[in-house]
Amino acid sequence: MPRILPRLIKRLQASRPPKTFEPFSIDEYRPRPKSLRKPLPPAPSFHPSDYSQSILLEPGNPITSSWDYIQHKSLPPRVHVPENTAPDAYDPPRRMTEEERRWWASPYLRMASTPPRRCFQTSQLLPTAFLIRLGIFQAPSAKEHRTFAPKYPPAAVLMPDGLEHPKFRGRKAGKAGYVLCWKDAIECIRVSGKYKRAVHNVRLHSTLEDQIRHLLRLRVLQELQLVIDGLRYRPKSLSHKPLVRKLTREEWKTLKSTGTMPVANAMAVIVVPPLNRHPETKERPKGSMSSLPPSEPTPRTFERPPLPLCTLHSTSDYESLPQDTHLAQSRVPLYNGVSMFPNPEQRAALLELLSRILNLERISRRQSSAAQSDEIPVESSGAEETPRRDDRRASHAFVLISDETTALTADMAGVGMALWRIPMFEGMGWEEKPEWVKRYKYTSMFGNEKYSIL
């Protein structure tokens, strides 16, 4: 037996299939919601003369069958409706109109239309895109679960839950609370203790802010990965409007000198320069999309002050736009990749994903032009051999485009929402001294009383 077991284990390990990452696993799959909308019966009468017996004895009466008289909402429209979709007799799936796709392509309208939830600190109903979901998880303990009394359950801890895309990782906690997407709000509930309204024995993790920062940046990478999946399976009948393009050096100089965005239909601009090589290994960092934050953060020394996370720029046609135009057309955020993604592994993954989108779109344009001209595209042309001007070369600034046409190809508005939540968590867009900020008095471990202004 001792001789057979090592050989058996070795054989089983050799026959085991390699573990691969499957973002669309069956465990995380959620079916589409079914429509509950149906025609209502005629309005009932409650007059006694209309019934020969009690109304409760009539079949389908509005008292015992009140569920039949409730009008349910119809399902929201979808960008794409597959041809093999099973038709519904009362609420068939509907495709978005061009105006609805324009609203859907705006990340700010999408954020404002998310379901409302109540914040721990402010007790206000806000869209979930402006909040952080903190799930209640059981803290690890050496005791067995049966040893805990009902009045003294095991300790719980609040952890970020639901920040990643549902196609990569779904929600794990059934009971949760919400707090503003702001680091000061999390520090405020840490001091005030209002998070204990959910569970009395719950506590906040010491590295909660760092975990939220890591997951918010990971959500941007996951949204870009879904854009790549949409480009792979894009129908050939769709127009090849670019989703991502690079600013030329001339456009980048114009943006820095005038502060006006040269691209009229830009949703956002993110500057991601190439990463430097390691001074010892002489290798560039490899991209990582891990959900776990880095164990040892890489210390960075800046010779100059760090760049701001985000700055807003007006478009070239800002004055001609109507006053009720949403933010996606009036102000364009410019994100600095070095400040937004301080982790080199995440920044390397960001640059790799953006480059893959550019490559896929370049291949799609070549195939469409070759199909129209019925010729094989030539790899090298005379335009590439002639030296180009430096101002016409591409810069390190990537322009993200989202409108009613690009919504048919991929959801670029999801990328804009994920990007905007990062500077929002650092304090951009919130009031400097809101009404809910108070002064809390607490006693330190040394016995002296202190005041903390949040």
From TrEMBL:
Disordered: annotated segments: 19-44, 274-316, 366-392
Lineage: superkingdom: Eukaryota
Biased composition (Basic and acidic residues): 277-286
Protein name, as recorded: Uncharacterized protein
Organism: Gymnopus androsaceus JB14
Record lineage: Eukaryota, Fungi, Dikarya, Basidiomycota, Agaricomycotina
